[in-house]
Each structure stands twice: as structure tokens, then as C-alpha cells.
Amino acid sequence: MSPYSESLRVHFTGGEDGAWAIRSITPIAGAVSLAAAPRLHMAEGAATPRAGAWTLDGVTSHMRYTTTAEALKLRAVQPPLGRSAATRAALIPIGKSPTWWALAQDDRRAIYEERSRHTTIGMDYLPRIARRLHHSRDLGGPFDFLTWFEFAPEHEAAFDHMLARMRASEEWTFVDREVDVRLTRMT
Questions:
Q1: Which CATH architecture does the domain made up of 9-185 adopt?
Q2: What are the phi and psi torsion angles at 178 (to 5°)?
Q3: What is the CA radius of gyration of the chain?
Q4: Distance from C-alpha of 16 to C-alpha of 93, rounded to nearest angstrom
Q5: Which of 14, 12, 11 is nearest to 22 (CA)?
């Protein structure tokens, strides 16, 4: 079985309805933020996005900076999204600088994993934290990646620790836009 997933289009809409209550929207880097909204609706596949204060579109794709061995290790311990205990979530849209995108693929990989240890850091927090990456750079939105995380309330401190480690890495010197949206699943 391949360690890579099929493509899935996803729309994240901040508005008046949705399964997730927005607890906070915090700009981390850059001038781009998101307007206040009480709820987040996530539509997968061919669904039409709902009207709202904002919609971010992304698509899952193959793991661009991950080796086959790393992908197999991730797949072995990565929990699924939608676990009943995972009532907290974070949507973190990220934009990388033009300098990042001017680098060759192997140079980005060296920064991403060999020096910043992105996958290695993430593995330290599995299976407590489920995650899914959505690529949005080629869809024309204000961000390059939409990162979605789900976890139980008791793992939020671990999630914050993981973010602090990643944000302290060389890779994050190339992040010029980032917003941290924290959510709670509605029952």
C-alpha cells in the first residue's frame, strides 16, 4: 500500500455556522489575518463552500518533502481525524516567503527536515495530535498551506509545545504569513 494519500479538496469557511466554534484567531506573522467569525465549517470534496466572513481552500496532495521511509513511519502512528476525544482543533494557514519558493526542491527538503526536523518534531507528538496538510499555493489564496490539527483538550499544551519547537526552527524564518485559529467541536 502506498504511504501517500489521494487528493481531497477542502473548504474552510469562517461564518455563522459549522461544527467548530472558533475560540480565537491570532495573527502570528505578516499583515494577512482573518476576520472574526463565531464558527468554522469544513466542506470536503465537491461540496460548494458556504458563504461566510472568509473561506480558505486547500487540497491534500502527496508529501513533497517526505521520504518514503518517513511517510511509512507517519502512516503507522498517525491517528485519523474525527476521533471522538479530539474536541479541540487548530487551523493554521501559512505563507512562505518568495525566497523559500526560489530555492530548489532539494534545498527546501534540507531546510525542512535535515536542519529543521519538521517531520521528526511532528512524530514526537503522534498519536496525541492528528494532522492533515492542505496545499493552497496554486489555488490563488493568501496562504500556501492550510494545516489542520485535532487533539483532546488535555493535549493542547503538547500541541503548543510542538508549535513552539517548529516556530523556533530555520524553516520558520521563511514563513511570512501565519494565523493561528483555535477551535472547539460543537456537540
A1: 2-Layer Sandwich (3.30)
A2: -155, 135
A3: 16
A4: 20
A5: 14
β-sheet bridge partners, residue 35: none
Three-state DSSP class for residue 187: coil
**pLDDT of 103-129, one tens digit each?**
999 999 999 999 999 989 999 999 999
- Cβ 128 vs Cβ 157: under 8 Å: no
Distance between CA 82 and CA 42 in Å, rounded? 12
CB 12 within 8 A of CB 39: no
pTM of the entire predicted model: 0.92
* Under 8 Å between Cβ of 159 and 90: yes
- Comparing CA positions, the residue from 26, 19, 22 lying closest to residue 81 is 19
User: What separation in angstroms does the CA of 150 have from each of 52, 102, 131, 138, 142?
Assistant: 22, 32, 6, 25, 23
How is the chain split into domains, by residue range? 9-185
